[in-house]
């Protein structure tokens, strides 16, 4: 006997489907552990049997409940299942319209919901449709489709109470709609594995968190702060709560409230001691406040925690299939909660110690970092493109600078030799620097231009690191009193020659920083070699180097060379022109930035810069002042 279209299945079959759903849902609600997952296919089997039949109103409550449980377990089994559109929800809505005697194949999902809620007025459909709507809202929130979610909740709100007043302008409409959404009680015979009320609470927390992040990204900090604070009062795990407090700390920091930021970050770590991004942001706030001791302590604790954090034991709290963690995944959140690699934190410790003049600590951290590299570069250096680490040769040069300042000159020379040996074969004999506007052999001119510039930039970087290695070796030998060896190092691969090794036809803007660093190295090499010529009594050669250095930056070593050559009038003129002491000013500022113009010197060049700075010799100043007083003339005239 054929079943008529639209007729319900036999009561025995319908009862069997409902009983199977109830059994599986009840078993999960008792255990609530990931290990207790029934395969989603068990629910899918029941759904497949039902959907193989024409849609009928008596069957739809069971069918939609089975569909909801199938979707819940699918999400629980795979985090990626909630990405994209839920085609199963769309098919479920079409089944409802079919049972109501209409269709909607050409409608969007938003339009489908509007039509379904208008057509499906049967009392027995209200509970399963509300449950399905909760899942639809979860899918849309996971895709950051706040407008679609708000529109759906408006429809549900009008269905429940057409005369309900809209929220005020000061209220957040989405949150207001979620809070006032009256989720109907589920039938005991058709239970969900995760109740609609629980889903509603998670949706409220997720909506507040997600909108707070969007406002934070847009720079609307007061609104972001309010929404994130609302999220802390919602239903979520400790892990998510710590993440929300971390975001609150970042928001307060951007608002210029560092003390408030520290309070929120402290709350994050108290809620979840494994929330290491909170420690990282704490260090950044202390850096902003200029509290170096606290900053370094936070970084040290962060590094130590990375080696001691272990997997958390299984939680005794109930496990929910759809959680806030699955619904709030944005690029900003990933950036704020980025877990730094131990090598990044160790490098940050080393760099900050070197910047603050804590040379002994800097040396220890740089050597630890270099030891980490011995375990394998790919294991210790993140390759995701978002790392704060500079290029490895730069780190080695910074380490050499720290060793030099700590008095370990031979160790510094050894490190520089390593940099030189690793970069020598990577530098072409002649580097042609130009923008390649036409490359017919390349399928994509834009791609060819990018590849060409990348190659040029790499070669320039290698050239810069190589000459910087010779420069640091020169200053190390000079400090050891080996003037002849220092002159040799300053003269080998002399920066004047190095700069001339590339032909610059049309300098791409992206290469300007490397060229400027090369110019700074040339300046420091000329000053360093000139100083050693003075030590060797080769005053004319020293004067020539100082004059060449004068073309790059105002030089003060030139004054000493002129004075020793008995060209006192010229020395006095340069002294009055370039020496801050002659003009009643203080010496060069931190890191000697007045000595060189343009961008700041790279950290690995700062120690060389300090040695190259004019010594501001009081005896020389007195001698020049006495000379000016004796001659009673203005040398600048």
From TrEMBL:
Gene3D superfamilies listed in its UniProt record: Tetratricopeptide repeat domain
A single cellular component GO annotation: Fanconi anaemia nuclear complex
Gene Ontology biological process terms, A to Z: interstrand cross-link repair
Alphabetical list of SMART domains matching this protein: TPR
PANTHER family per UniProt: FANCONI ANEMIA GROUP G PROTEIN, FANCONI ANEMIA GROUP G PROTEIN FAMILY MEMBER
Protein name (Swiss-Prot/TrEMBL): FANCG protein
Organism listed in the record: Columbina picui
